[in-house]
């Protein structure tokens, strides 16, 4: 006999049941969300309205900032609204939509970081061929591939979940709809689906992370032959990229690389890749990059306060 899906609404248990802690979290995440929008919009506008847009590295950084805004907006507004609500509910259709969009923009971010690593590898290891290899057509092709790969990943996660029967209970022990918490609520055995999720999310993240680390290791190895000044500039740029990669991938691997089980720590780790990483990305890329700092100063300080003496 086929099990019917009689759940129309899910209850999100959120981060805490303590109202004082929820209010504190609301203030904190409101600040974080404002910082995410201000920081990433600053990067997008500064790059788009300057000659930096013609450089592949900043073209990818511009796309990363846009994906950061989209990614965190699939989760953070709902999280903040729930922190002030008496009952944290989400409809079945909205839950599935959130699941799809979260993995879509998260996947875009993962693949863009890979594209940025490839760009730095070509720039440092094959400098004479850089302008030919990283042409504008190649950059657009890489971004198209990033979006296509993310769409395939997200659609796979969505299809693995949408056909699951939910007949109760309907409490999701998380602050947003994700695959593993939903698998716990399904009214049938989900071991095989859990394994497919590990392959689709955890294994992809692990392989991508290893590729990224290998590429940066090759970059560091190549930098040994560079003059001190050029080496220092390249190291500063690459260290920014590695910091962002570690900040994003380590929590993702903790959550998705294991079999379909959930831990209380998952919610804390999820905060890193849904809120904290998108907030720190603009700071990391701007403070460690002299070209970005000069463009921000020129565009914003001089335009707002007039030309300096």
UniProtKB/TrEMBL annotation:
Positions of transmembrane segments: 20-45, 96-118, 139-166, 193-223, 235-257, 269-287
Topology relative to the membrane: Multi-pass membrane protein
Gene Ontology CC annotations of this record: plasma membrane
Entry's Gene Ontology molecular function annotations: G protein-coupled receptor activity; olfactory receptor activity
Family matches, as InterPro entries: GPCR_Rhodpsn, GPCR_Rhodpsn_7TM, Olfact_rcpt, Olfactory_Receptors
Main location, first listed in the record: membrane
The entry's keywords: Cell membrane, G-protein coupled receptor, Membrane, Olfaction, Receptor, Sensory transduction, Transducer, Transmembrane, Transmembrane helix
Domain G-protein coupled receptors family 1 profile: 39-285
Subcellular location: Cell membrane; Membrane
Pfam family, one: 7tm_4
Function: Putative odorant or sperm cell receptor.
Family, per entry: Belongs to the G-protein coupled receptor 1 family.
Protein name, UniProt field: Olfactory receptor
Natural source organism: Mustela putorius furo
Lineage: Eukaryota, Metazoa, Chordata, Craniata, Vertebrata
